[in-house]
Amino acid sequence: MTVFPSDLKLSAVTPTESVDWAAIPSPAFVLDESRLRRNLELISYVQRESGAQIIVAFKGFSMWSAFPTLREYGISGATASSLNEARLAREEMGGEVHVYAPAYSDAEFPAILELADHLVFNSFSQWARFRPQVEAARAAGRTVHVGIRVNPEYAEVETDLYNPAGPFSRLGVTRREFRMDLMDGVDGLHFHTLCEKDSDTLERTLEVLERNFGDVLGQVKWVNFGGGHLMTREGYDIPRLIRVVRAFRERWGVHVILEPGSAFGWQTGWLVSSVLDVVHNVKDALLLDISVSAHMPDVLEMPYRPRILGAGDPPELDHHRETSEGVGGHPYIIGGTTCLAGDVVGEYVFDRALEIGDRVVFDDMIHYTMVKTTFFNGVKHPDIGILHLDGSYERVKTFGYEEFRAKLS
């Protein structure tokens, strides 16, 4: 069970057993409204009890057809990492627009500045370069909050690909490179060292941050704790998060901002696919109407093994089995339809033999997965749909030739 106070009563979610998968056109990313609202109930509670401002990180969740639901729960803005995301934040999310990018270009910065309420710079050289434009905007009456991203040089991230504080990281200013003489005009700090971590990791990270940047914390008005706070995951210690954030706010007299991405979309939906063919080469393989490379790239990048509803691991991967003898079921290698030889998820065991047209449903495919898809090989991009509270399914976006064509030239 998720660790949260007894006064927080979360709503029930739609059982997967009650979903008519065959009625959903394949392939499709399907957001379950009941699961999204359950996450938002918890996030809203944390925001209220901790006193922090929680905004959504578009790099993890930017399904803008769901933004009206986010606003219902007091989500007051978004954080963007590019001009395009900043424009999406302003036009579709509303509220405050927070922007951080490792580097801003001369060509795009004026437009970003026009959109942003909070601007975080990755280095003092970038701040010095664009400071005249920021000061001109302020002189014209704009309120633009400026922050510097710092690198506490502490992280508990196991995967190097997602470790912002690893050796020789390009992200954030270390203590030895920090320029107190360039802090005029800067009113906040930003750090991001977490990746789907619990609140105990945040607590240890703050201890290092305060030890290394205590003199700076005493001069700023706000501190952005970045993302990676997976507060909607089962087992996350919610009371500790609230306690840690409250204590930091009171100790330093600052406004605290959290910008999770995964926490919003965590366990809120699926990627529905269909079997196009079954081939045999010593082992049986299912060819699905999706692509691992194009539609689930983290499976290859991290890598990780997604859960498939109604399927289990083969005996050699199932650590709950003492022996593989007598194990029944129907094993299949699961692959996509691109010509990439490695466009494969892995091997799974099903309770029955699958046939052409059967649905194969990948779990937890809304956060991060959706934002990373491509049109590689021109394979059909999955639809985007919403399973509503009343059980009805709404297809909110379908992709065709024009989207594929427009991307290339």
UniProtKB/TrEMBL annotation:
Substrate binds at residue 298. Pfam families: Orn_DAP_Arg_deC. GO terms for biological process: lysine biosynthetic process via diaminopimelate; nor-spermidine biosynthetic process; spermidine biosynthetic process. Its cofactor is pyridoxal 5'-phosphate. InterPro entries: Ala_racemase/Decarboxylase_C, De-COase2_C, Nsp_de-COase, PLP-binding_barrel. The keyword Ribonucleoprotein does not apply. Its EC number is 4.1.1.96. Gene3D superfamilies: Alanine racemase, Lyase, Ornithine Decarboxylase, Chain A, domain 1. One of its GO terms (molecular function) is diaminopimelate decarboxylase activity. It is an enzyme of class 4 (lyase). This is Carboxynorspermidine decarboxylase. It comes from Deinococcus xianganensis. The gene is nspC.
